[in-house]
Amino acid sequence: MSRAALAERMGVNRSTILALTSELAAVGLVREESPEAALGAGRPSFVVRPETDRVFVLAFDVAVDRLVVARVGLGGTVLDRRETTRPRTGVDLDTVVTGLAELGRELYDAAPPGTVCAGVGASYCGMIRPGDGMVRYGPELGWVDQAFGTELESALGIGLPVAVGNEAHLGAHAEFARGAGIGSPDLIYLHGDVGVGGGILVGGRLLGGESGYGCEVGHMLVNPHDGRECLCGSRGCLEAETGEYALLEAVGRAGEFGREAVRSVVRAAAEGEPTAAAAVAAIGDWLGIGVANLINLFNPGVVVFGGTLRELYAVAAPQVGARIRQHGMPVSRERARLLPSGLGDDATLIGAAEKGFAALLNNPLTQIARTRSAQTTC
After folding, report:
1. Which of 28, 21, 33 lies closest to 53 in space, CA to CA?
2. From 33's CA, which of 91, 169, 330, 367 has a CA 20 to 30 Å away?
3. How far is Cα 96 from Cα 151, in angstroms, rounded to an integer?
4. In which element (H, E) is residue 247 found?
5. pLDDT in tens, 8-53
6. Which residues, 6+ apart, have CB-to-CB distance to 263 below 8 Å?
């Protein structure tokens, strides 16, 4: 963005912008360049860009079936990444932490000379205690009060704390900052993995609740009469009716699991295979009821479907839309846009990176000095 545009957006004069960008450039966070093509009369305003290749964070994404680690540059660009599978073997804190730390240290050590790691962020598929990264509850593999954040920080050993967030919460932030929800501060993000997670932004801020465990939309009751049993112990939850198990059982593939199995059913439905098409349509009905409830409650500008729901929505959009028209209040739904994730499978990974960058963005000069000092002593 040009200095002139920055000055206008921030409501300050150009000399103030010059002073600020000069400070940031001096510590290696931004660079200033002449515009590629000057339009109009007068001297062109310099363009300010983030130092994507020089300042990065380590981002970790822990899903039920996979572990992803990336080096993400300032500005949201994935510079390098590693990925591996995660077996569904129950409480696996030590295995997950060891695997993530090995991959993370590999990316950290491979970073070019002169670069700096400004933070570490992690996304986990469970309920996260704010502040210390404790996984209070991860239903699929039985995690209860597992010290994920502190254990990963210790195993990684680069002198930086690990900021941990719930995957759907971070996905909501990522889609608002860099994906389908840019410009829509009232946003609902729905993330499909085995179950369904949710992140709700109101005025650009996450609706966290009293203790930070808000937005568990997957456990919103949608089928109270003969609902399927949910991992949370209830019946008829949104994720029980729309998640992986419901879809695969509906097509007679209950012995299979994983995102590729889900996506193969969705592809079959898109190609017109009758059993798959019927299953996806039924799932779309329940998903539409859940989204209608959310629209009535929060009047969002955009609802973003991420994870496996991204592909599911592409095929089940007619059923979702019909339920919203049937159950959603017209004044609440008239401006709500339903969109697939703009970041695809990387939404939660980019959200983890944004979490890692938060301290730097809040206090750039102090934080960049602190991180450089920490890495000098590692």
Report:
1. 28
2. 367
3. 10
4. helix 244-250
5. 999 999 899 999 999 999 999 999 998 875 555 566 778 999 999 9
6. 308, 311
Strands (E), the chain: 30-33, 47-50, 55-62, 66-73, 77-85, 116-124, 127-129, 134-138, 143-146, 162-166, 187-192, 196-202, 205-206, 302-307, 337-340
pTM of the shown model: 0.93
How far is residue 148 from each of residues 15, 121, 168, 302, 360, measured CA to CA in Å? 46, 12, 17, 32, 22
Rg for the chain, CA atoms, rounded = 22
Task: Give the CB-side neighbour count of residue 246, counting CA atoms within 13 A.
Answer: 30
DSSP state at residue 221: B
**CATH code of the region 180-342:** 3.30.420.40
Residues 228 and 215: beta-carbon distance below 8 Å: no
The answer regarding whether domain 55-169+347-377 maps to CATH 3.10.129.10 reads no
Taking CA atoms, 377 is separated from 51, 158, 161, 322, 373, in Å, by 23, 9, 15, 59, 7
> Do residues 310 and 340 make contact, with C-beta atoms less than 8 angstroms apart?
yes
